[in-house]
Design a protein that fits this description.
The chain has about 350 residues and is α/β, with parallel strands linked by helices. It is built from twelve helices and eleven strands. The strands form two sheets. The chain has an eight-stranded parallel beta barrel, surrounded by four helices. A three-stranded antiparallel sheet has the order 3-4-9. Bound molecules: flavin mononucleotide (FMN).
Length: about 350
């Protein structure tokens, strides 16, 4: 029952029927999902935790983040999906899943309150599993398909990550033909699995902010044609927007996240909202650190908002703060609900 509730709520949120709290914490919990099930701020309706980012093998190597907190609230990372690999992730999520089931059985109470506390299949909150490809893979789709087969049972939604800048060749998968082929294969793998009455797991694609108008048009066309459940916009940028460009850290290799990414990712979000005519749910991500930022993402077309870097700086206390600020912003702008505000800056 809890599983059905979680997916239902996710779909409702994506379809704009639920709007109590549009915040997702893009806390990646390391690529091995070590901490995925234990994060607070995931128990209430609308607070959604996105889960581990999955490198399919131990990518190792360049795990270096350059942080310039005082000036920019930004990070340049070149992690490259370092992690213990998919088997370790499956084991951990499986163990959490089993423990939760056991707890539920021993309490023998499946009251709505308990369900709300345990929406995620592998622990509290809603758990999104972010799939990547191996650095050395020749058949990228096979890696994503393996991810679907191995981890779907623990996830509430899946993300096809084709936008991390630190894995060679990954971003090429955003090309029209490549993306179409990949999504079709991943959807087929998902659809071949056995699903309950709620139907298959929602499937989203996460894109980069460093895309041309033509790239965005291609992605929008694929998303519409293949009825994607959502797009996450965006991952980190390989560009170095001002004022970062003038700082010595700008020379560091890797993806830039945090405040300097805000404008770039919000502009891409707006373009995608227009291109998809508001028909594909969009998750706004990139540089969000306040309720005002979250409000701008929503006005630019986001149904949900995600943050990572600011959460690292601000910690869990940031979430209720952003929610309170967001409520003020919406009221100030005369909106009675988040739904009303979605995409208004694109009209
Ligand atoms: C250290 C670090 C690791 C990340 N790893 C992943 C990843 O594995 N998969 C992914 O889709 N995004 C990853 N991201 C990108 C974030 O999820 C997010 O899209 C990006 O940082 C922009 O949001 P922010 O400005 O709120 O951080 C990572 C970001 C950072 C800083």
């Amino acid at each position: 029952m809890a599983l059905r509730v979680s997916r239902k709520i996710y779909r409702e949120i994506l379809n704009k029927r639920v709007f109590s709290t549009p915040l997702l914490t893009a806390r990646h919990c390391s690529s091995s999902a070590q901490t995925a099930p234990n994060i607070p701020h995931s128990a209430k309706k609308g607070r959604i935790l996105t889960g581990a980012t999955i490198g399919l093998v131990i990518a190792g190597g360049a795990y270096v983040s350059t942080v310039d907190e005082a000036t920019f609230c930004a990070i340049i990372n070149r992690c490259g999906f370092n992690g213990e690999g998919i088997v370790a992730v499956a084991k951990r999520l499986g163990a959490q899943h089993a423990k939760r089931k056991l707890d539920e059985t021993s309490r023998n109470s499946s009251s709505p309150t308990d369900e709300a506390k345990h929406k995620g299949k592998a622990g509290p909150g809603i758990l999104g599993v972010n799939l990547g490809k191996n650095k050395t893979s020749e058949d990228a789709a096979a890696d994503y398909v393996q991810g679907v087969h191995t981890l779907s049972q623990y996830a509430d939604y899946l993300v096809i990550n084709v936008s991390s800048p630190n894995t060679p060749g990954l971003r090429m998968l955003q090309g029209r033909k490549q993306l179409e082929d990949l999504v079709k294969k991943v959807q087929a793998a998902r659809d071949e699995m056995q699903w309950g009455e709620e139907g298959p797991l929602p499937l989203l694609v996460k894109i980069a902010p460093d895309l041309s108008k033509e790239d965005l048009e291609d992605i929008a066309a694929v998303a519409l044609a293949l009825c994607l459940d959502g797009l996450i916009i965006s991952n980190t940028t390989v560009s170095r927007p001002d004022p970062v460009s003038k700082n010595p850290v700008a020379r560091e290799v890797g993806g830039l996240s945090g405040k300097p990414l805000f404008n770039l990712s919000t502009n891409i979000l707006k373009e995608m909202y227009v291109l998809t005519k508001g028909k594909i749910p969009l998750i706004g991500c990139g540089g969000v650190s306040s309720g005002g930022d979250a409000c701008q993402k929503i006005r630019a077309g986001a149904t949900l908002v995600q943050l990572y870097t600011a959460f690292g700086y601000g910690g869990p206390a940031l979430i209720p703060q952003i929610k309170a600020e967001l409520a003020e912003c919406l009221e100030r702008d005369g909106f009675k609900s988040i739904t009303e505000a979605v995409g208004v800056d694109c009209r």
